[in-house]
Design brief:
Two copies of one chain form a homodimer. By secondary structure, the first copy, chain A, is of the alpha+beta class. The first copy, chain A, has a domain of 119 residues: Glutathione S-transferase Yfyf (Class Pi), Chain A, domain 2 (Up-down Bundle), CATH 1.20.1050. Helices cover 56% and strands 6% of the residues of chain A. Chain A has a four-stranded mixed sheet with strand order 2-1-3-4. In chain A, a hairpin with a 2-residue loop joins β3 and β4. In chain A, α1 crosses α7 and α4 runs antiparallel to α5. The longest helix of chain A has 27 residues. Chain A is globular and about 45 Å long. Chains A, B: This is Glutathione S-transferase. Chains A, B: One of its GO terms (biological process) is glutathione metabolic process.
Chain lengths: 235, 235
Amino acid sequence: MAYALWYWPSIPGRGEFVRLALEAAGVAYRDMAREQGAEALVRDLEARSGIRPFAPPYLVDGDFAIAQVAHILAWLADRHGFGAGQLERDLELITLQLTISDMVAEVHAVHHPISAALYYEDQKDAARKAAEHFRSERMPKFLGYFEDALGANEGPFVLGHKWSHVDTSLFQLVEGLRYMFPQRMEALERGHPRLLVCHEAVGKLDGIAAYRASDRCIPFNEDGIFRHYPELDGS
Amino acid sequence: MAYALWYWPSIPGRGEFVRLALEAAGVAYRDMAREQGAEALVRDLEARSGIRPFAPPYLVDGDFAIAQVAHILAWLADRHGFGAGQLERDLELITLQLTISDMVAEVHAVHHPISAALYYEDQKDAARKAAEHFRSERMPKFLGYFEDALGANEGPFVLGHKWSHVDTSLFQLVEGLRYMFPQRMEALERGHPRLLVCHEAVGKLDGIAAYRASDRCIPFNEDGIFRHYPELDGS
């Protein structure tokens, strides 16, 4: 039976990190809220009891639901063979994937530094200051870290010639950062050649190329995690 | 051989979530930066190459280093028997532990909404607004979520009568929130009876009681994750 993926239907958001791995691996899934709407997602989440997902995305397999992007991906990697297949290497991949999640959370906090419950327009001054620090300190630190990780093996992927869930997530991270900070990324990319090689190689995977040419893949927009507000960018 | 735990020596911080599980389980570890200082931590981290920890805390076992609190705890739980011992239940515990990590990150962002690289004093206005939203929206949402999770079994712990890494982390979360938001927690606690029962039961575990009576356990302070700034509290 196909997995049921539940995530907000109108943005790529955190759900896209799960989608990309499923698409790259050719694993069947139904994108439930794209079929049934956001209200169905809220109903499904609220109907769950006990130990349930705190927030989307979550993936359902029969009676079992699993949440948190890095956790979903580690579980899928084990089931579908897009991890390392060796314990310590798999644990290292999870460390990387969790660090990608941390960066994604910081990306969201750039445009919503005071509260996710307020509009961007109501926290624009704080966002501008947050963006300055994020661009100058956090982007080089995180991207340098991922660049080093890609140096652990002879690329194009983190594990070498076999793609893993970390590579599809790094692809999406680069896509999102290019959308949100085009000027800053143009300045930073030249210093991160392995990341660019990885990004290109992921884009050429059959499953990813087919997905991105389909209408299942929706563009970034200003309701999502990665938002292009020109006033938050700068080289 | 004892594990080597690396974390900033002068705060409980994120390291405390790892310490508490190790102490409750009676697993031997050396608290490296408490022995050798913060400079030794920076040197150790910088000397690591390839796929390495992004930030402390990390735990070293021989040649292998693992980072990210929830990830360290899931790995330790598997090795030392303080998980569920059944795959789907263990995955649920990890979902909970990752959600605790998310709340801890939000707690830090309350007093550092613009940038972790700026002083609190330089982002006090934004912090005050962030704290209002955190107290009114995020605290009830997160604590209600953990309260529900504790209802999945007949307490006092998430798994029922066996403690797990999630319980020791919930203990520390309650401790930290009481320190940071005493007024708000006083108002909220009565509505979360299972969380209080869990907190009390963890405090009575032999390993935890002994640890907390020792000088290995240091108090919260205003360099850490949980900081008491009276202007950020309110009922």
